[in-house]
Amino acid sequence: MEKKRTEARATPTPTLDRGRATKRRLIEATARLCKERPGAEVSVAEIANAAGAFPNQVTYHFGSKDSLLVHAAFLGLLHDARRIERIGRQAPDAATFRRNIARAVLAMPSLPSVARALAAGISKPELAPVVDQHLQVLFRQSERFVSRLVDARGWEARRPLDVEARTFWSTALGAVLLVRAGAHGSVADLDLAGALTIHDKPGPG
Predict the structure, then answer these.
(1) Could you tell me the pTM of the whole model?
(2) Is residue 203 predicted with pLDDT exceeding 70?
């Protein structure tokens, strides 16, 4: 009897692992399709086929296609952010860091998809917690990166690093939303580097 109870407790683990693997495949397949076909509509059937899953698993795991698109958009953004961290580490001084980071962020291929995800979070309240969850991950990842770099290089920021990360990304994402909403100009007109307050420490005297 005890053996049967133990087996019953152990059984859900493979099922849970399979569910997580399926979710991951669906997110990655969606991110890949959106990157390959920017701005184009991607169907649930196409996503499921690319992920080796069934269409009804999209609803089962995410509730809706829109929720899956939000997860996929931020997966792409986090991948881009890691690449941008490598660019930031190559900067010889704080001024170059600000300039290179701003230029790289505004050229990220994931930004249009993330702008759509943000707009979905505004128009569909049920998606707002999903958007917020991913934004918090982005903010924390960026804060940790900047903290390590500032400590290693002896730089300084003129405000707390959590505020630095939130302000920078809010400026970048807000600019993309404005352009997509039809505002005159482009993201290239934005002084995103000015949203960063990281500087070299002044020398003695």
Answers:
(1) 0.80
(2) no
